[in-house]
Amino acid sequence: MSKQKNNPEEIEVGVSGNSAEETAKEKNSGNAKKLKYGSMSIITIALVIVIVIIINIMAGIMEKRTPLKLDLTADNRYELSDETIDFLRNDLDQDIDIIVTCKKEEFANIEYNTEAYYRIYAGMDVDVPYSMIPIILEKYQMYANQGKGKINVKYVDLQNDPKALASYEKYYSKTFSDRSIIIYSNERVRVIDTDTLGGMITFDQKSTSATPAFVFAGESVITSEIMNVVDAHPVRVALAATVNGETIYDPQLYENGMYSCYKGLKDELLSKNGYDVEEIDIATDELDTEKYDMVVIPMPYQDFDEKIINKLSDFLYNDENYGKDLLYIADLPSTNLTNIDEFLKDWSIEVAPQYIYDTGDNYFGNSETIVYARIADNEDYADIDVGSLPAAAYTSRLVNVLSRNNESIASAVIESYDTAVSRGFDEGSKPGSASAKPIAVVSKRQHQNKTDQFAVDESNVMVLGCGFMTDTKVLSQTKLYSNASMLLGVLNKMTGKEAAVIIPEKSLQQAVIAPTAKQTKTIRLITVYIIPAVIVILGLFVLLRRRNK
Q1: DSSP of 415-463, one letter per residue?
Q2: E strand or H helix at 186, and its extent?
Q3: Which of 51, 330, 416, 526 gives a 20 to 30 Å CA spacing to 284?
Q4: Are residues 306 and 437 located together in one domain of the fold?
Q5: What is the structure's pLDDT at 2?
Q6: Predicted confidence band at 448 (pLDDT cuts at 50, 70, 90)?
Q7: pLDDT digits (tens, 9 = 90+) for 531-542
Q8: What is the residue range of 98's domain?
Q9: Phi and psi dihedrals of 456, rounded to 5?
Q10: How many domains does the chain have?
Q11: Better-scored residue on pLDDT, 61 or 97
Q12: In 165-262, at which residue ranges do the beta strands (DSSP E only) sit?
């Protein structure tokens, strides 16, 4: 049998097949796979980048309308009250500008300096979180944008940009200062000044702890000023601060270190709640009925002359148009104000030379002269809601309703409880019988409108027997006393002003674990920028590595 000689080329082809063709196919197949997986990697990375961008954009949009930030603090310090949220969502129908005249970081500096002061001079580590205020302002913006109105918050540095507030200056008669909050809407401006801003965090007067406790009163201030700036019909008040250049009230009694009654009346009760207040000299300034809606006479300890009395009567009479109001607050010790007494008697009201104290359990603390006060049974004022807390009336004068044959209709609006009695200032005077004693009386005079036979014009005189009811500390302690809501409710009813919202103070717990402003900024930097950047870098690394295989 003959043997066939093997061809080396045939043997090589037999082992590996069609080498040139298959090698080309394998190369093309490898390139296709690389192209396929490389394209998929690019598409995947692009999708991830797009998703991250979309999520951040959506989060930014939703943050303005929905609370994405969780307040995990025990005292819930970064959240607004239900009353404020309801107002912002349902009642605010105008656009508001809130301009803070300092950098946002300045609040962290205020916090640091305040805490350092307590640490150095009092030896105490306390939490005074002023850095919460910018976060609170963000919440105002967020909740307002869920309703009909909008709030825009911005920060300006007056040192570097002195003309930043030029567009608002023509609506404000004073000068804007650093560290204040300006609230603007429809050519009206309200300003929370530096002192008020600093007082947004203050001592908790009711705390008995050895370590100072603090409350946040800023929400009450901010909400009130927003309501004030959108009020279409503010009540314009002429507050009689002086008489012929002399203080109308006794400053030693009502404005010393212990009491701050005049300031409380002006700032806490009137200005803070939407009354446009202008201080006047009741003897030398005119009571222009075109300019003012109400006159306030705070605790006068000297009698008025006939010229002033006639000025008050003319203001209330208003050329037979009526429509004006007067608040008179009685001085505690002054009992010889003949002309003033006669003026009040003409309105069927008497400030008796007696004071009120309680013989039962209806008084505060250890002083029976700090009596509980409540809204009287009066059909015009019975619907005033003051909650479950009584008001505190410290050494109130007795205010009587007189039966006189005149046009005035007088009735008690604030009274003591049934266990109260009254007695004269003389040492030998005896108390009367126990009953509800009038602390505040409102007298009204009505007159048919000249042009509308179905309309009635009305002027009112309110007499409050207790100047101490307007003390700043008492008005601000809304969790202890109802003085603010009670007095404001009566004044709003009398003047026809839309009711304001009384926001309770928020107790701040010490040693709360909460991020500082710097920490919050760092968290935002990490979540919004660093994490997406890391994802992109990792994606590119994976792409390049796969392409090189």
Answers
A1: EE-TTEEEEESSTT------S--EEEEEEEEEEE-SS-TT-EEEEEEEE
A2: none
A3: 330
A4: yes
A5: 47
A6: confident
A7: 777 777 776 676
A8: 74-233+504-513
A9: -125, 130
A10: 3
A11: 97
A12: 181-185, 188-192, 201-203, 214-216, 235-243, 246-247
Dig out the tokens for 182 from the structure.
Answer: 């300006």
167-190 pLDDT, tens digit per residue, is 999 999 889 999 999 999 999 999
9 versus 408: the higher-pLDDT residue is 408
Q: List Cα–Cα distances, 139 to 233, 289, 392, 412, 458, in angstroms.
A: 27, 41, 34, 42, 42
Closest C-alpha among 220, 148, 99, 163 to residue 479: 220
Identify the residue with better confidence: 76 or 166.
166
In sequence order, the 6+-apart residues with CB closer than 8 A to the CB of 240 are: 248, 280, 281, 282, 295, 296, 297, 298, 300
Q: Check residue 454 and give its pLDDT.
A: 74
Q: Domain holding 172: CATH number?
A: 3.40.30.10
Longest Cα–Cα distance of the chain, Å, equals 160
pTM: 0.73
- From residue 510, alpha-carbon distances to 42, 77, 115, 282, 289 in Å are 52, 11, 12, 47, 51
pLDDT in tens, 501-525: 677 778 887 755 455 556 566 766 7
Q: Of 159, 157, 217, 164, which is closest to residue 192 (Cα–Cα)?
A: 217
Cα 289 to Cα 239, 294, 313, 510: the distances in Å are 14, 9, 12, 51
Three-state SS sequence of 308-324: HHHHHHHHHHCCCCCCC
Confidence of residue 498 (pLDDT cuts 50, 70, 90): confident
Task: Round to whole Å and give the CA distance between 338 and 114.
Answer: 51
φ, ψ (nearest 5 deg) of residue 438: -65, 130
Same domain, 347 and 443: yes
456 contacts: CB under 8 Å, gap ≥ 6: 446, 447, 448, 449
